[in-house]
Amino acid sequence: MLRVEGLSAWYGEAQALREVSLHVDAGEIVTLVGRNGAGKTTMLRCLMGLHGSYGRTVGTISLLGEDITGLAPHRRARRGLGFVPDDRGVYATLSVEENLTLPPATKLGLDPWPLERVYEAFPRLRERRRFAGTKLSGGEQQMLALARVLRTGARLLLCDEPTEGLSPLVVQQIGDILREVKAAGVTVLLIEQNVHFAATVADRHYLLAEGRIVEALDNDQVREREDELLDYLGI
Ligand code: ATP
């Protein structure tokens, strides 16, 4: 689905990514784990084509075997890339339903999720459908941000730390939603600091340190090394 080769990125003179190579296969959930400042957000911005407004990149990114390295963000979105940013990007003055009906369908993505299907998967959003974005809790905003990308028919979701700051119950709900998203054939690359959660929801993991991939881990390795990883991540 996604293949990244030799990706480096800079902010001015400061290098944030160093020759990162990774892949995500169709139908997988893969996490990017790393300390604050390791380069995780920069990685997602590069994949979505958003790093250009910050600085320079080299390397190649391909989606479904096609080189998308030079494409603008909206063209990547049309090919089925969906970005769920860490600030969630919910339109604060619009209602939940307006947020859900705004995004256009992608041209080369999966079938966009109809509103009814979104409400089945996210019953909380149905209850809140007339509420303005500002009136939502952090968890509800996260659900709305995820649902909005599914409405476009995205085939690969890039999620920047969807569980950050959420209560354990809501984290569990986000996990259920991600599993449902995967069952619907959507592939996910996820930034995640909660390694316990990561091992319950994802298939594989990459550990990023100082802009490099230092380890590729499977779930058993993450579970065996959970304490060490939490210590390393400073959590
Ligand atoms: P966090 O979880 O804290 O967001 P991260 O792993 O996502 O961390 P990035 O945000 O990608 O890390 O940051 C990687 C490096 O790039 C850091 O050294 C950071 O200070 C730097 N950086 C990030 N954004 C900018 C920016 N807009 N301008 C300059 N440097 C930046």
From TrEMBL:
Q: Which GO terms describe its biological process?
A: L-amino acid transport
Molecular-function annotations in GO: ATP binding; ATP hydrolysis activity; branched-chain amino acid transmembrane transporter activity
Top-rank taxon:
Bacteria
**PROSITE patterns from the UniProt entry:** ABC_TRANSPORTER_1, ABC_TRANSPORTER_2
Keyword Protein transport applies: no
Q: Which InterPro entries match?
A: AAA+_ATPase, ABC_transporter-like_ATP-bd, ABC_transporter-like_CS, BCAA_Transport_ATP-bd_LivF, P-loop_NTPase
Q: Which UniProt keywords apply?
A: Amino-acid transport, ATP-binding, Nucleotide-binding, Transport
Q: Which Gene3D superfamilies does the entry mention?
A: P-loop containing nucleotide triphosphate hydrolases
One Pfam family assigned to this protein is ABC_tran
Which stretches make up the ABC transporter domain?
2-235
What CDD domains does the annotation carry?
A: ABC_TM1139_LivF_branched (cd03224)
Spell out the family assignment given in the record's similarity comment. Belongs to the ABC transporter superfamily.
Its name, as the record gives it, is ABC transporter ATP-binding protein
